[in-house]
Specification:
With about 600 residues, this protein is α/β, with parallel strands linked by helices. The chain has 17 helices and 21 strands. Helix content is about 25%, strand content about 20%. The longest helix has 21 residues. This is Phosphoinositide phospholipase C.
Length: about 600
């Protein structure tokens, strides 16, 4: 029972009721229990087989174990006098995010293809605790990102006096951290969540002497975990499976660093503040005036700090820091002759190219097929434009539709763009590597490749039914949403993906209840289901102010399990709530 004070004198009382089974749950139970009050393990096995719930098992023994687990959890008993499920037990099973999740938690994709055949969970300025201008640098955000499955970590290396090296965001007021602390943080957390390789991208602003010192520090810290590779004569990169437990270094060879020039992207200005939700994905792309500015600097393809460096090396690499060069497993190649030449594929070499988010948009618009061909073998890294001072992010779908492996995101930020990134990498067991769809890797008989700018016909239809929600009263204070009454929840559900697939719908508002029941269904036509993400947001309606945040999740459509599923919700930073969840039904037709 919850009490809400009204007019300082009277109290209005609301009871938090236990949600009963919704009609969809009752219908499924009645159908498989054949009208009886209990569902037997054999009837549960038949349901699992009919709905292709391979995640729950397929044998009678699997069904019996599931029944036992439900009874143990719900009734807290170790020895059972019965071995069947009541309607309430069945409802408990379906509404459990542990027993009935919407996607799997195991690596299931082929991990034996070359590394460039995968999208890789990538961080940008991974050492920053907050904004890009004045926040503290630390090893803690690196550890946090790695534990969340991030596989690419970025470090900016700067001299600290004559004989030491630190990590900081150059040209800002960020407080530096010692390189050693960052390396130790990587070593301690690299493989706690995923055993697949970690790539460290370095922005190097060091003298040859300090490069040698860095080479020794990296070698001593990681030892046999380091992967050495002659990328000068590499035609195909090893697979994630072959590189399990390995650390890879990616940067430019010393002699290829350019003189430092203007700020990133040659841009100045203020990054717009985002509210708790962040901008809608379609609002995260560049304006035409911004793209026009980029075109004026088309020859400065790599304007990230890493690609500019801080010195001009006029002697050979071997005379500068051979130990350092030997560490580089993925070379960041310096393009010459503009964007078209930068995307040219060398049959005898593999390299990494970095483009800003704006230059990617321009490249896709003018050289879409070249971008696809480049990413079939080489690595393409995309980084945020220089005016994202508050560590906001951009729309990742443009990069994924073009085959870019490393969409570098500010993991310390928040908002809808980051939710999409987190949703994408919930796929494949959350291991940080997601295999590209075949259409991005296919080459036709005449050399034709996928055109990211071409609209296609729908391949698949997804039906999503929002049934009900529960758990907010356990994760939030009773007056969190409204001081005078229980919350008024509604759900926004939609698709992020190919331009033709994007959609957003919403349910009705359910007033004054902690356990809302909606029973509303939505249908989405998908032209590129392989890269589509299901967006789910819960809002608490406020008549006078901006709606409150009630949870969110993004899920890869290609991994959705059909049937009634318990969908856990996350806070705005991507941390899962303990109890808050939705009951939803998914169907592909």
């Amino acid at each position: 029972m919850g009490s809400y004070r009204m007019c300082l004198i009277f109290k209005r009382k609301f009871r938090v009721t236990e949600p009963g089974p919704v009609d969809d749950v009752r219908d499924v139970f009645s159908r498989y229990a054949e009208g009886q009050a209990h569902m037997s393990p054999e009837q549960l096995r038949k349901l699992m087989a009919d709905e292709r719930r391979e995640d729950l098992g397929s044998s009678l023994e699997d069904a019996e174990r599931l029944v036992d687990e439900v009874l143990r959890r719900k009734h807290h008993i170790a020895k059972f006098t019965r071995r069947n499920l009541t309607l309430e037990d069945f409802n408990y099973l379906l509404f459990s995010t542990e027993l009935n999740p919407p996607i799997g938690d195991k690596v299931h994709q082929n991990m034996d293809a070359p590394l460039s055949h995968y999208f890789i969970f990538t961080g940008h300025n991974s050492y920053l605790t907050g904004n890009q201008l004045s926040s503290k640098c630390s090893g803690l955000p690196i550890a946090d990102a790695l534990r969340k499955g991030v596989r690419v970590v970025e470090l900016d290396l700067w001299p600290r006096g004559k004989d030491d090296v630190c990590v900081k965001h150059g040209g800002t007021l960020t407080k530096a951290v010692k390189l050693g602390k960052c390396l130790e943080s990587i070593k301690a957390n690299a493989f706690t969540t995923s055993k697949y390789p970690v790539i460290i991208t370095l922005e190097d602003h060091l003298t040859p002497k300090l490069q040698c010192k860095v080479a020794k520090m990296i070698t001593q810290t990681f030892g046999e975990m380091l992967y050495y590779h002659d990328s000068e004569s590499c035609k195909e990169f090893p697979s994630p499976e072959e590189l399990k437990g390995k650390i890879l270094i990616s940067t430019k060879p010393p002699k290829e660093y350019l003189e430092a020039n203007d700020a990133k992207d040659g841009e100045k200005g203020k990054d717009s503040d985002e509210d708790v939700w962040g901008k809608e994905p379609e609002e995260l792309i560049s304006t035409q005036s911004e793209l026009d500015k980029v075109s004026n600097n088309i020859n400065y393809i790599n304007q990230d700090d890493e690609e500019r460096g801080s010195r001009d090396f006029d002697t050979s690499c071997s005379l500068q820091a051979p130990e350092y060069k030997r560490l580089i497993a993925i070379h960041a190649g310096k393009p010459k002759g503009g964007l078209k030449m930068a995307l040219k594929v060398d049959p005898d070499k593999i390299r990494r190219l970095s483009l800003s988010e704006q230059l990617l948009e321009k490249a896709v618009a003018s050289h879409g097929a070249d971008v696809i061909r480049f990413t079939q073998k080489n690595f393409l890294r995309i980084y945020p434009k220089g005016t994202r001072f508050n560590s906001s992010n951009y729309k990742p779908q443009i990069g994924w539709m073009s085959g870019a492996q490393m969409i570098a995101f500010n993991m310390q930020g928040y908002g809808r763009a980051l939710w999409l990134m987190q949703g994408m990498f919930r796929a494949n067991g959350g291991c940080g590597y997601v295999k590209k769809p075949d259409f991005l890797m296919n080459v036709g008989p005449n050399g034709e490749v996928f055109d990211p700018n071409e609209n296609s016909h729908p391949k698949k239809t997804l039906k999503v039914k929002v049934l009900m929600g529960d758990g907010w009263h356990l994760d939030f204070k009773k007056t969190h949403f409204d001081r005078y009454s229980p919350p008024d929840f509604y759900v926004r559900v939609g698709i992020a993906g190919a331009p033709a697939d994007k959609a957003m719908e919403k349910t009705e508002v359910k007033y004054n209840t902690w356990t809302p029941i909606w029973n509303e269904e939505f249908t989405f036509q998908l032209t590129v289901p392989e890269l589509a993400l299901l967006r789910v947001e819960v809002h608490e309606y406020d008549n006078n102010e901006k709606d409150d945040f009630g949870g969110q999740t993004c899920l890869p459509v290609s991994e959705l399990r059909q049937g009634i599923r318990a969908v856990p919700l996350f806070n705005r930073k991507g941390v899962k709530y303990n109890s808050t969840r939705l009951l939803m039904r998914f169907e592909f037709v």
